[in-house]
Amino acid sequence: MGDEQATNGKPPDPMEAFRGLRDSYLDAWAKAMVETVNTDAYAQSTGIVLDTYLSASSPFRAAVEKAMLHVLEQLSMPSRADFVGLAERATNIEMRLDDMDAKLDRIEILLTKPEANKRKANPAVKNRKQNKGAK
């Protein structure tokens, strides 16, 4: 009897109606929210709420930051400012190393060019070096 009620080879699912109802409900809410959020009035009211929140919370935020800095100092732990300072120093060192690497590359090119030019100009120098290596 259960096989007779099966559709497409699957047993009937009593929750299917509820899933369909849920999906249509969520689709209706999604459409309504998209229409609401895409209005200028919503953007303005959200901006006002955020500005009010930021204005009201800034004194508390400053107090919390000051208290956290004091606690970290008492625990001998680094603060955000300490990490920022270290990051700036590391960046400075990295930039200096890059500059030194570029200068060393230029020096190497300058030092290797005359040797190549001497070998091309005087093949005897090249032959002497090869003969020394063979001995």
Walk me through the structure.
Helix content is 85%, strand content 0%. The radius of gyration is 38 Å and the shape is extended. It has a domain of 58 residues. α4 crosses α5. It contains 5 helices and no strands. It is an all-alpha fold and 135 residues long.
How much helical structure, as a percent, in the residues?
over 70%
Q: Please report the total strand number as a whole number.
A: 0
Percent in strands: under 5%
Broad shape: extended
Kindly state the mean pLDDT as a whole number? Answer: 85
Summarize the helix and strand pattern as letters.
HHHHH
Total count of helical runs of at least 4 residues: 5
The Rg value, from CA coordinates, equals 38 Å
Identify low-pLDDT runs: none
Quaternary structure type: single chain
- Strand pairing plus helix content: what structural class? mainly alpha
End-to-end span in angstroms? 101 Å
The largest sheet is: none
Distinctive features:
single chain, 0% strand
Produce the secondary structure layout:
Elements: H1 2-5, H2 16-37, H3 40-74, H4 80-121, H5 123-134
Helix pairs in contact: 4-5
